[in-house]
Amino acid sequence: MSQVPETRPERPVDAVAASRPRGAVRWVVVLLAFLGTTIVYLDRANLSAAAPTIQKEFGLSNTELGLILSGFFWTYAICQLFAGWFVDRVGARVSYTVGALLWSVFTAATSLGRGFASLLGLRLLLGVGESPAYPSNVKAVREWIPKRERGVATAIFDSGSRVGTAIALPIVVSVMAVISWRGSFVVTGLLGIIWAIAWYLFYRTPRASKLVSAEELAYIEAGQETPEELDTAPKVKVRWIDLLRFRAVWGMILGNFCVAFVIYWFVTWFPTYLIDSRGFTLPSLGLFGSIPAWVAVPSGWAGGIFADYLIRRGWSATRARKTLIIGGLIVSTVIIFSIFTDSPAVAIVLLSISYGALTFANASVWLLPSELAPTVGHVGSLAGLMNFAGSAAGILVSIAVGALLDATGGSFLAPMFMTLGFLVLGIVSYAFVIKRVEPLEMPDRS
User: Fold this and answer.
1) Beta carbons of 109 and 122 less than 8 angstroms apart
2) Cβ density class 277-309: b for 16+ within 10 Å, e for less
3) Model pLDDT, residue 419
4) Cα 127 from chain centre
5) If 192 and its partner were Cys, which of 80, 104, 251, 431 is the partner (CB 3.0–4.6 Å)?
6) pLDDT of 46-59, one tens digit each?
7) Proportion of the chain in helix, strand, coil states, percent, rounded to 5
8) CA torsion 385→390→391→393, rounded to 10°?
9) Do 361 and 304 contact (CB within 8 A), yes or no?
10) 22-433 maps to which CATH number?
């Protein structure tokens, strides 16, 4: 199904409208993207929060639990190669709605799990449903947000991943206390269905929306690279294999693999780490275990604010993005010091600093697909490729940490050093593999 260009009668554009728009529909779009991302990660982290209880009930080894946690990432990674194309093909409205309905049903169905095989199968299905989410977010921001505001907009929707992870612990623990771990999956699944309906009813491209004012539309289009791109199909065929010819794309892929590896350590194994290595109880896990994720939320916003500020100050995209990404990753290396303290409180502080610095950098990481894309028709494809790498990192961290724990008698020493190694590799990738952050020059294959 091809995405039919949406048109709208021309509206007057003037300098005042471009500088002081009336209306903020574009920020409602960003808010909805934030809520969608929050629910994505709430559903994704639900199993991690309930993992200690599920592991005990079914007698799962750490390796088996790691395989279940990784199941989501296997299908999520594979589907990323097609999700970006799908988003570019049908548009963010349809792709996000279909994805949300699918992942919500599969989340609720996890309550029917009866052991290793069924839980693994349901996690595989969840990965399919969630695959269009991030490419849809990036596409929506590219369509609705002028360049000067994209850093903040990206940081806002991306912070939903931290909010979802943070609220998963208290929500799941509370529902488990009242009902059971199975009931927590039903509750979070229903939230996704409600959101899917709201997104489908509200979302349109700027020119197709009846809610956006003439002034805001003028402001949005004045801040785009080329206003016509939003209403025309791309003239260059979107083939992800062509994108892999560029060094900058490989740098983006490798860098995101490293960043995502550490982020997904927090999403998958962090609750188990607090219980097994730090002696947290289930109630204290729900209370204190979400602190790093909450710290990471304003840190991500700060990363977006600085990203926009540096561009307004005249910094090039290359200088601005590299400075914030590399700086954030350097600070994030304090994660290694958390294993050398006997104090759980000090460990939480160090882990919070590490996670916060990581999300500070990640705000600029998710700007790269839009800034490297030669046209708006390539944004989803580039985002899908980048997210494929992140998903592959999720597979590795889920399985590798479980295997290392079984091999070392439950010690998190080796997993922590592994996260440090990937942070260093990420710094190298963004510093030296990516030379410039600028649109790729694609050949015309029409």
Assistant:
1) yes
2) bbebebeebbebbbbbbbbbbbbbbbbbebbbe
3) 95
4) 13
5) 104
6) 887 788 888 888 99
7) 80, 0, 20
8) 130
9) no
10) 1.20.1250.20
DSSP secondary structure code for residue 263 in this structure: H
How many whole angstroms separate alpha carbon 408 and alpha carbon 413? 9
Burial of 48 (0-12, 13-18, 19+ CB in 10 A): buried
Q: Which residue has the tokens 């982020």?
A: 263
pLDDT digit string, tens, across residues 96-129: 999 999 999 999 999 898 889 999 999 999 999 9
The angle subtended at Cα 117 by Cα 115 and Cα 122, nearest 5°, is 95
Residue with tokens 């992140």: 390
State the DSSP H helix or E strand holding residue 264, giving kind and residue range, or none if neither: helix 247-268
Which sequence spans correspond to the domains of the chain?
A: 22-433
Which string of b and e fits 347-384 if b means at least 16 CB within 10 Å? bbbbbbbbbbbbbbbbbbbbbbbbbbbbbbbbbbbbbb
Q: Are 336 and 420 in contact (CB under 8 A)?
A: yes
The pTM of this model reads 0.74
Residue at token pair 């020493």: 413
Going 83 to 86 to 88 to 91, the CA torsion angle's sign is: negative
Q: Which stretch of 204-218, 325-339, 380-394 has the lowest confidence by average pLDDT?
A: 380-394
Which range scores top for mean pLDDT: 7-11, 82-86, 260-264? 260-264
Side chain identity at residue 441, one-letter code: E
Contact (Cβ atoms closer than 8 angstroms) between residue 146 and residue 222: yes
For 116-255, strand residue ranges (E) read none
The answer to whether the beta carbons of residues 102 and 40 sit under 8 Å apart is no
Give Rg (Cα) of the chain: 21
Q: Would you state the structure tokens that stand for residue 336, as one six-digit string?
A: 């290694």
Q: Which long-range contacts (CB under 8 A, 24 or more apart) does 56-61 make?
A: 58/115, 58/116, 58/119, 60/116, 61/402, 61/406
Percent of the chain at pLDDT > 70 equals 90
